């Protein structure tokens, strides 16, 4: 039961983490900074 629940939670969280990562990456690109240009 616990392992199945953990797998379901992971399946739900992974897309959210990917979305947050994309949003944060877009915010970094919109903000002009020397570090952003180097990356």
Low-confidence segments, ≥5 residues, pLDDT <50? none
- Could you say what the CATH topology is called? OB fold (Dihydrolipoamide Acetyltransferase, E2P)
For the record, the count of structural domains works out to 1
The dominant shape is rod-shaped
Strand residue content: under 5%
CATH class: Mainly Beta
Rg over C-alpha atoms, rounded to the nearest angstrom: 16 Å
Tell me the series of helices and strands, N- to C-terminal: HH
Helical/strand content category = mainly alpha
Number of strands: 0
Organism: Escherichia coli
InterPro entries: PmrD_sf
Protein name: Polymyxin B resistance protein PmrD
Structure description:
This protein has helices at residues 2-30, 34-38. It is mainly alpha-helical. It has one domain: Beta Barrel (OB fold (Dihydrolipoamide Acetyltransferase, E2P)), CATH 2.40.50.650. InterPro entries: PmrD_sf (IPR038679). This is Polymyxin B resistance protein PmrD. It comes from Escherichia coli.
Question: What would a concise description of this structure say?
Answer:
InterPro entries: PmrD_sf. It comes from Escherichia coli. This protein has 39 residues and is mostly helical.
